[in-house]
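Moderator note: this is an archived Q&A kept for reference. The question asked for a predicted structure of one protein chain; the sequence and the answer are reproduced below.
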Amino acid sequence: MAPRRRCPICGSKQWHKEPSSGLITCSEGHVLQNYRNETREVTELGPHALKKRALKSTRKKKERESKADPRLYHGERARYHYFQCLQLLLRMQVTALTGLWGLPAEFEIVCRDVWALHLSLLPVPPPAEPLSATQAQSDTPSSKPDQSTHDTSPSREGSGDEAGPEKTAEPANSESSSSSSDEEDDPEMVELMRQAEEASSSSSEDDEGGEGAQKKVPASRTKTKFGRKYDLPVNNLAVLVVACWTLRLPATYMDFVRLVEGYDLPYLDPVRLLPESLTTHLTKHTKSALSPEHAPSVILLHGLASRLAKLMYSTHQVQTPEMNAAPTLWRAVRALCGTPTLYVLTKKVARVLSVPLTLHRTLSAPLERVKKKDPTWHKFDNAVPEVSLIATVIVVLKMVYGLDGKPRSPKKRNDPACSLPCMDDFLGRIKACDDSAHEHHRFCATSQMYVQDMDNNALDDYLAFCEKALLPQEDRIVERNAAITFFPLDKQDKEMQDNPQSLSAEPTSMEATLRVDEDDDCLLPGEKLPIYNTFDALGSLPEEYDMVIRRAAHWCGVHDDYVAGVVERFERRLLRWWTRRTDGEGTDSDNQDADGSV
């Protein structure tokens, strides 16, 4: 530091040292004279400089103990275990459906075959059973090189021929190093190994020369992710749907959804139903993949089932039969409070519209092409089958009633509209049916019921539902006591809950449609029918038509726009058919007149 003396020029005592030049200056910038600045930078160390030596520690580091649970499975073994849980869940679902619907024993056989086909058609099939690898690990401790070679074999298979000669020679070197001296002296074995190495190296060189700058696939496989679209538990329901179609059972998608929401069909939170020997090996990700949060949608279930049926036919030539349309159509007619006359009219219109009755459009014969630009299939041919049927019923109802706010009455005695009920009574019955019928389960996730608003019977049903949905299977066995023996709960409400469509199936008397005089100016059935465009976002449907569409959508479990779109396509298709028919009749009459004049 500079001495605390005054500057001879300005008298200031504030000194500081400039870092760049090393000069001592006062606050005014005057340089202090006769000050020696010594440089202490050392460029070379002398022979007597002290230097601290770093001694290597001889203490052995303690290995960090793994906190992972050894009982949990990971990788391919976990994926194989995941499919084991799905298969056991499928067996539970088959047993539940057989008991609920009274299905024959052949249903289980069909489900087993469809399940095997489903596993073979997955984009990433399930891995092989890891039992052989487990036995090889537990046999002898000297088999570690073979074990490592066996573990890396799937990665080499996934990388194909691009692995290179170095990777191909590694297992051969490890095997040769661990082999006995007799095998090394065998000239035939040495020659075979040499030829195998030359063949693998030549094939890899050819592949690299042909593909050019193509990137090599890494040998290590990517981490398997649970929750793929076709590995989810919803595919079990798709297998059940295809099995029901194979046996021609008239089951709809909402039947499965309703059973899932009521916990009668094992699907929601199925881990509690699995044995402890399986659940102890499940990680949190596997449990999450096995436990869906809600019941599947009808569109998703139909997409998976139709895809499975298409792949079964295109890959293994397994044909899924057509839908048992007669009882399903009658259920659709009864959902709209229809009569047998409406059922007969719908069958005739469905035949004209060529409504597809297959699970996928590729399973039916393509359309006849008159011109090259003609399509081979119609739009909405791959729609939900029950939506197609109930859309045909709505087309017939529009032809009879109009559903546009304008009254239509028949004038002829043989008009089929005379056998149908009056429009006011019919629409009133549809509204009452839509308000009273429970298409979804009574206590499903979308229910708006509150516990404080329930009566005693509803509370008993809700507690029984909670016991079925929350408790494990072994905890549902209630000990017998005097209260349960002599005061059992009434089962009548439970039977009504299990049969949610009994209210909509009750027959009621409605007045028939009266015909009017021929001099009346009212519209006839099928006259001046409007076709509503579903892509018109600002447009609104008439009240009568919207009520019928909403009731049909609730019965099918889809959105209102989906049903309205199918109805629109069917109406335009029917209009084209009617135009071709009238044009053909006009051409035939003109030809007959021309032949008579000649």
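Archived answer notes: Residues 231 and 294 are 17 Å apart (CA to CA).
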